[in-house]
Design goal:
Low-confidence stretches: none
Oligomer: single chain
Strand order of the largest sheet: 1-2-4-3-5-6-7-8
Mean pLDDT: 95
Number of domains: 1
Number of strands: 8
Order of helices and strands: HHEEEHEHEHEHHEHEH
CATH architecture: 3-Layer(aba) Sandwich
Shape: globular
């Protein structure tokens, strides 16, 4: 795909965002994130509603004329330390409208105040709450980006190990799958979005001294057997490309149906930029994957 004006414009601004994540205090960043998320407009054809899912803050995004018995559980990224952003809401709203189903956004607890396993516990609780609302497991899809991609996989591991019905499909966008050795990657490769200083803080905040090789922290050390079909999208230029390739290989080795797509020239979670042609291409593919596996059409 040729370089579009949107790609040129967005790429030019990435360096500033990268620097801000490394040096702006988390409390200030969180204030800005909350304000923008409160004010974002998702259009007249989608309804937004806060909900308490057994003590976990969540938000429903419901498009007009959506199917009532299918749902996407979406887990946002943000290095385990940043909350639900306006860009995540816009991206999830796009998926909701494209697929024609409701989306439950999990506003999970954040590190460093709430390190592992708080975020994972909240995601599992939100999923179990959906089951309690009458959604069948195979009528639920689960998806997430970056740290949310990590939580997508580890949530399924927890569900499987506790004999809880698994979702019908899962999609991971630039997932973090190994928290044990990121700094070596930064020495080998420049990442347009992830700053090594910010990544060190994010990982340390979530780990809080715990073993990074815990399979529920770094799922590359887990047994993925029995998980539902997975779609993984990652950018060619990001340091987490290796994370995505490794988790896809591990899934395939134990018989999990997995599709891995590496997008040329793309950076970490490029899907957040809806004006970008590659973002629409990726999100449309994710929507088709979910549609296909939840038997919507």
């Amino acid at each position: 795909m040729a370089i579009s004006p949107a790609e040129k414009r967005i790429r030019a601004g990435l360096a500033l965002t990268r620097t801000l994540t490394a040096y702006v205090p988390v409390s200030i960043a969180q204030w800005g994130i909350r304000k923008s998320a409160e004010r974002v407009s998702l259009g007249d054809n989608i309804q937004r509603e806060a909900v308490n899912a057994d003590g976990v803050r969540c938000e429903w995004l419901t498009p007009n004329d959506s199917l009532g018995d299918r749902v996407l559980l979406y887990i946002h990224g943000g290095g385990f330390i940043y909350g639900l952003t306006s860009m995540h809401l816009e991206m999830a709203a796009y998926l909701a409208k494209k697929i024609g189903i409701r989306v439950l956004m999990v506003d999970y607890r954040l590190a460093p105040e709430h390190p592992f396993p708080a975020a994972l516990d909240d995601c599992v609780t939100a999923y179990r709450w959906l089951l309690q609302q009458g959604f069948a497991g195979d009528h639920i899809a689960i998806a997430g980006d970056s740290a949310g991609g990590n939580l997508t996989i580890t949530t399924m591991l927890q569900l499987r190990d506790n004999d809880i019905p698994l979702p019908g499909a899962a999609a991971c966008l630039s997932p973090v799958t190994d928290l044990s050795n990121k700094q070596g990657l930064f020495q080998q490769q420049y990442d347009a979005v992830l700053h090594p200083r910010a990544t060190r803080f994010m990982n340390a905040s979530y780990l809080a001294g715990q073993d990074a090789r815990n399979p529920l922290i770094s799922p590359v050390f887990s047994d993925l057997q029995g998980l539902p079909p997975m779609l993984i999208h990652v950018g060619e230029e990001e340091v987490l490309c290796d994370d995505a390739v490794r988790i896809a290989t591990l899934a395939e080795e134990v018989g999990v149906s997995v599709q891995l797509e590496i997008y040329p020239r793309m950076w970490h979670v490029w899907q957040l930029f809806l004006s970008l042609p590659q973002a629409v291409q990726s999100l449309d593919a994710i929507a088709h994957f979910i549609d296909e596996h939840l038997d919507i059409t």
